Amino acid sequence: MKKGIIAAMAALACTCATAQDISPYLPGEGEGIVYFLPKTELEVNVTATKVTYTPGDFCRYASRYLRTEGVSVKPEVYWEIKRVEVRPAGVPDSTKAYIMKLKDKDVASNIELTPTGIVKAINTTSPRREEAAAPELEKPKKHDDPRRYMTEEMLMAASSAKMAELVAREIYNIRESKNLILRGQADAMPNDGEAMKLVIANLDRQERALTEMFTGTTDREDRLFTFRIEPEDGTDNKVVARFSRLLGILSPDNLTGEPLYISVSATAPVPPAPADDKKKKPKGVIYNIPGKGKVAVTWQGKTLFSGELPVTQFGYTEVLTDGLFDKKVNTRVIFNPETGGIAKIDKD
Questions:
Q1: How far apart (Å, rounded) are the C-alpha atoms in residues 68 and 165?
Q2: Residue 23 has pLDDT above 80, yes or no
């Protein structure tokens, strides 16, 4: 196989004229450009969020001094499913490997392949494909040390209850200062609007840091988990992954978590091409005409993803007729390496 791909890459510089001889590729038989047609794998990307709650030093006094109810005094770590995305990915189909045996003056000998041997273009260079944007992952935010905003009186308090009382009083003082500035009633008003924004932002930071001593902190960190499956028409509730509130995203065979199911069905099946004489070799470049499939991912009866995606296996193969590659006409073809279908064809 490696020899065939090396031969393919060595032939990229060739550009001259007549017909191609294309046949299924068998290792060790013949020389020429070996290429694969892709098949579709479904890439399931699950973004899960790890939530870490840390109680504040004065969590027991949140109700008494700040009138904040329901503040937990116990630390907690748990997971949430943030989003699920499914995208098609093209991989070489080992059952659809072909060799283009080049004759002298072959006009279609300028062929571009992906690093894995999937055909990308003939007689031209395929445009650079933008990588699919990776999901944005939330990272834990930095928390200010509240003690940097505490006065000597607070730090020297004889008990945690007294310290909590003094900190709560400072929080109310900060809120009052912000209100006076916003109303234009402060004794020392900022000089301009920009200075006011800076002062308010600083007071907000102080209030937030001191309040977290009562309410605690909640950190959220996203992590991406990727699973791949080969789609089949009629797939119903196949376990693609599992989820545990305590452990997060798990592999399909880990029974600790609740299953995430994937279902796949052909929505736009392409009728097969008329059957040709099986003994007759194809006269031209073989490519895919992909079908489409509806894909849904569910968890506990809730639909986390639903969409229609191209699926090569739901389509069929066709032949780009040899007549397109004539020495009098420069025909250029660009293929979609994800599906093996034709993306663009032109000539001059």
A1: 14
A2: no
